[in-house]
Amino acid sequence: MIKVKKRKFLLLPGDGIGPEVVGEVKKIIHWFNKNKSLDFEIDEGLAGGVSYDKHGTPITDEVFYKALECEAVILGAVGGPKWDHVEFSKKPERALLKLRKELKLFANLRPAICFKQLVDASTLKPEIVSGLDIMIVRELTGGIYFGEPRGIKPIDNGERKGINTHTYTTSEIQRVSRVAFDLAKKRKNKVTSCEKSNVMEAGLLWREEVQQLHDKEYKDVELNHMLADNCAMQLLRNPKQFDVIVTDNLFGDMLSDQASMLTGSLGLLPSASLGAKNKDGKVRAMYEPIHGSAPDIAGKGIANPIATILSFAMALRYSLDLDKEADNIENAVQDVLNDGLRTKDIAEKDKKEVSTKEMGDAVISKLK
Ligand code: IPM
Ligand code: MG
């Protein structure tokens, strides 16, 4: 066995079910260290509401610097009703947004894959979703999430005005589109770009810049443009028409939630947030399940750890080029689902319901 140099993951379990699902990833990391001599190093930190409770801020500088230095961040989830009263700039979600923005993680990859074992868990008809394999590439550091001016201010008549600004520049659009085209080349070679070019100038610019990049560098990839509202409808009508969808921050937030439910459960879907390559070809990255902190089931030991486990597999694939190890994990998940193991979110009649820990253990028992 070849010894690989120490590589550090920063685990940010966060709030709600975050610590439970990240706990299962920790077990998997230990398994790889023990059985494959991979020497992964783990560091841990507080982010989100737990950090606010302890330090009065959703993420401390210390944790942020750890994020800058590690190979990849694995995040559980942040937020919950407990922090509803907290001032906007200190809300748990700000930790996530700060990490995305300041690590410059502009490309968010959100796969929506329908596992064949779970076709019946979707609310859509089996023939609509079976074999579904979509990749949503969401722009993550621009658009209305970050545009200035923003705020809430009093206006003349005693009313208040809420302001957010939607902006995009050529380079912001093109760098995320490039990620989408490159991914499509390794898949079914088809990109659908979504915006509202019929209403918003920033949407029109989006369409034009994606088209220009395509004509210059990616002529061999099929490109379609679709209005985002139509895309929402088409995702329900005929989701298998899509291969890679590239879209802005806000539409990507909504369309990826919608796409995830085609697959039956939010509890299964991982995501990767990637930055630009640096000089040594390394990419800053954060990996997290698509689901949130699910406060209603937190602490009960019933959350599905698969989305987080698959997020770790994405980390191995995209940050460390460990494709074989990523395949190992993904195959183990398939095996466990084949065996009929189900957490509550994907429970089926006559199938045993297992806890978060049992699901994690089962995946580990299938690792080769
Ligand atoms: C997501 C979440 C976040 C977002 C929240 C928690 C800030 O919904 O990752 O999709 O809106 O981006
Ligand atoms: Mg969301």
What keyword list fits this structure?
about 375 residues, globular, binds magnesium ion, binds 3-isopropylmalic acid, two-stranded antiparallel ribbon
- Radius of gyration based on Cα positions: 20 Å
Q: In what range is the share of β-strand residues?
A: 15-25%
**What's the CATH C level of the domain at 1-109 and 268-368?**
Alpha Beta
From the 3D coordinates, which CATH architecture of the domain at 1-109 and 268-368 would you assign?
3-Layer(aba) Sandwich
Largest sheet at a glance?
A: 10 strands, mixed
Mean pLDDT: 94
User: Given the structure, what is the number of helices?
Assistant: 12
Structure overview:
The chain has twelve helices and twelve strands. Helix 11 (323-338) crosses helix 12 (356-366). The model has no long low-confidence stretch (mean pLDDT 94). Strand 11 and strand 12 (283-289) form a beta hairpin. The relative contact order is 0.15. It has a domain at 1-109 and 268-368: Isopropylmalate Dehydrogenase (3-Layer(aba) Sandwich). With 368 residues, the protein is α/β, with parallel strands linked by helices. It has helices at residues 18-36, 49-55, 61-69, 93-102, 126-129, 170-185, 201-217, 228-237, 249-262, 306-320, 323-338, 356-366, and strands spanning 7-14, 40-44, 72-77, 107-113, 133-139, 147-154, 160-165, 190-195, 222-227, 244-247, 270-277, 283-289. The strands form two sheets. Strands 2-1-3-12-11-4-5-10-8-9 form a ten-stranded mixed sheet, with helices on both faces. Helices cover 40% and strands 21% of the residues. Magnesium ion binds next to helix 9.
